[in-house]
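User: two proteins, same treatment. go.

Assistant:
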Amino acid sequence: MVAALVLLIALASAPASASQAQGEVIAEIRVHGNHVTPTEDVLKVADVTTGSPFTASTLRDVEKRLKDSGRFEGVEVLKRFASIADPTQITLVIIINDGAARVEFERMPGGEEVARVVRRGWTDNLMYLPILNGEDGYGLTYGLTTSLADVLGARSRLSAPLSWGGTKRAAVILEKNFDGGPVSRVEAGGAVQRKRNPAFSINDDRKKAWVRAERTEGSLRVGATAAWDSVEFDAVTHGFGTFGADVAFDTRLDPGYPRNAVWLSAAYDLLAFKEGHRIHRTRLDGRGYLGVIRESVLAVRVTREGADGALPRYLQPLLGGWSNLRGFEAGRFHGDIVVTGSAELLVPLTSPMSVGKLGISAFADTGVAYDHGMKFNDQARHTGIGGSLWFTATGFKLSFSVAHARGGKTRVNFGGGFTF
């Protein structure tokens, strides 16, 4: 009886053992995700066919061949069973990512247009932005920024701004943005630039290289920068390194026309000159925007830029012109320390629903400029009072002002441009 039972068990297990002895075989191959590459081309690169043995290294080998081809951004190879009754029959599933693609329409001989999907080349990732800005005393700057997206993966960009006119500049800038971690953005770049200093009517020729890291958390941004400058100014060449940190707090929803918001920033730089001396420089900038009657806004700004030593002329902050003291020419005053203040009532003339805003304003600007070692209270204050006509739209701002300098003349100042 026992012997018969053993014999029955042996007979029952014999077919399964024979089937397992045959080994696993690729019975079917499925390819998914190939919106651009034909299935035949995928199988040719994978170098696998139905009927081939499925071994312990098949998944690894097929995936490696596909990745090594360099034709796909992502590859995944999976094992599935083709039959419940026969576990030796294997379905090989190949999932690929062709990468960015676009749709093109091809006209057939009969006149019919047929859509086809083609892989995007590196030229499809190129972006262009205009450079156009100007200010009295500095002239009009115009040019183009060419950018190549995703050069270091997602959220990265290689930019090459090239401008002429008031500021002649050629630069290469590489930046990478991160979704998480301690750093939100990293930037490195190099530039050559010529800009005329309006205070001294001398060209400032500069070569610069820098690296910067930023962390953004809501309205707060913290950054650190290291840079090297080589400056030729008035036939003298200087070199210095900059090591700085800055913080900014910005609650503006519309930077072009903010309302009920503040923008506060503070920066510190250590300037290390090639000759061996060092200077500590600070910059403070506070702006407040309060909504008043209807869509009008009262804007107030206070700034201070200064150093604890005598700065070279090409590094001295300037006072005068559209940027901080209207009613005076750009760079009318300069020094190691510049303090400014302004109050302006902006009144839009167009509807809040308009794409752009056109308006007028009344303002008063004041400021002082003096050298290190002198006292603020001993300085003569310079004040300009006037009005302006302005226009702002997404990424663009332009303003013309007429202001009278107390104890001086009446002057027209202008400034603006694209602000990407």
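Protein 2:
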Amino acid sequence: MISIGRSRQSIGWLANDADAWIWHGVNLDDTNKIVRVIKECNKDNTWHPFGYANFVELLDDPNAPARLYNNIYLWGGSKAIADFWEQQREQGLSHVTINLKTTQRPFKEVGQDFAENILPKFKD
């Protein structure tokens, strides 16, 4: 069972009863702290992954810098977004739910950019 948001539950419940937790609007500086608190609150020594949601807009230039607005809207080039998520993974993030935003780019082009420049970094 994956808990989405807090589900009106305590962190202790999320750390022990949910199989994973997906939140939204996470401040980047808090990722490591959230992962650490989940681990500290866990009583069964079972890994309970943490992830968050991002609205994502891939720009034409795959090298355009990634920018995060309101802790949820990620905007930038595919290579920079991949690097952004890699940095978050190093802090303990294990999942990202992605909502690709409508852009002027054809969806097939956006999908190919995503497949070529983002997915290969996370095939494990």
